Amino acid sequence: MPKRLLEFSDHTAIAGVGYTPFTKDSGVSTLTLACRAVLAALEDAGLAPDDVDGLATHRVGDSAPPTLVGPALGLADLSWHLDQFGGGSVSHAVVGQAALAVAAGLAETVVCYRAINARSEFRMGGTGRGLPASFEVQYQAPYGYVAPAQQFAMYARAHMLRYGTRAEHLGALAVTQRANAAKNPRALMRTPITLDDYLASRWIAEPFRLLDCCLETDGACAVVVTTAERARSLRRPPVLVSAAAWGGGTSHLSCDDPTVTAAAALAPRLYAQAGLGPGDVDVAELYDCFTYSVIVQLEDYGFCPKGEGGPYVASGATALDGALPVNTHGGFLSEGYVHGINHIAEAVSQLRGEAGDRQVPGAEVALSTAQPGYVLPATSALILRRA
Amino acid sequence: MPGYRPEPDRDSRAWWERVARREFAVQECDACGTLRFPPRAFCAACRTEGWRWREVAPEGEVESWIVSRQPFVPGLRDPYLVVMVRLKAVPGGLVYGNWRAERPPEAGERVRGVFTQVDEELIVLDWMPESCIAIRSGENSPAD
Question: What residues form the membrane-spanning segments (chain B) (predicted)?
Fold first, then answer.
């Protein structure tokens, strides 16, 4: 382990969360969405824009960077900012790095945001968009193999072939998360579905059906990171950042086992930082661009043995009343897709005890995760704790 | 078949030129002999730069596959099958291609590469069962 130079665990906190509505067409720019979410998060925390000395986001050429949002909100002198390149795999690294900057004293109040018109302007699914900027895409594009739905379907089938994971397992996850979304006023899709509905939904890329795929969404979400000490004096109950970890994996063009993600290597570091283990997690908000990404993370974060993520979900363990409630807001599959930060915001709501009908009673520790390291070989995650 | 064409970079251009000559090559490290794909200047095992092309038989095993049914790519509306193959010559190496047989692949099935002439300028490497003789080279994909 590297030598520790500053105290990190539980020294910073999330003091506020803010959202725009989730829609299929926001009708406004990503800059406008970002400003609205940032101001909403500050309002939630009981802070003013002039309290902000840091901004952080991630993007893939699809959104407004801090150097645009800062001036747009009249934030003339930011002492720290981060414009992280990347998609869902770095979503939690943004908040982790903001917490690190606050812990190190580079900034005191950082607002992390993600703003996307992922439905009306920039569809991750690739429909009508050029090729992603990636060295490796040249070995896939000539075969019509470019969209995340295709890539994750490929890994899902590898998991099915190796471990016997079945469509019914993926379907159980989609059904469970929709049931959670039915209790979430913010969710785009709130009508409950059955396993038969799942099985009857049209093919996208076999083995994925429509209901395996997340909702491409217009919207923004933001969280305010500050010192734990300052958070205690603010409007809302503080949620402590107990652990933040990120890490790399191997390329999807060269790996020994595509059913193991970068999360498997990251998880021990993450848990060690918090002094906790999987058994201590009360609620998990796991990156669900597709059903399969949750199944593999349940294994790689140690909630069930390798290969048993499917049966674990089908057993009901991830339902609101199960052993490990997962994606209590409905996730990207049913609430909306804001590329990771809405998972962090939901974890905060749960730890504050403010999640309404979908509240997990007595939730004290939450795990929230980024895309586990497919496509781009990187991932990140947070453990958050009620103060 | 493709709506998209490969966009070679400075590391990969020579590899694509070999594919265009219906040759499948991987890199062999001068220092430690490790074979690697895709083309890169450095050996990830010993971190040295010296290497040479090593022509190998395009053979491998089926690791996974999908049947794409959504028009993700402009111009491609019909379903098509993309297979992920683990290279025999490079144990960690995964390659992709369209499947060129009338039946779907099987898990772990041994496959061989077949060069497909897409148009006057482009040749790509596709995959078919090892048991099939590569007589279909030059045709378009089964989905066309």
Answer: none
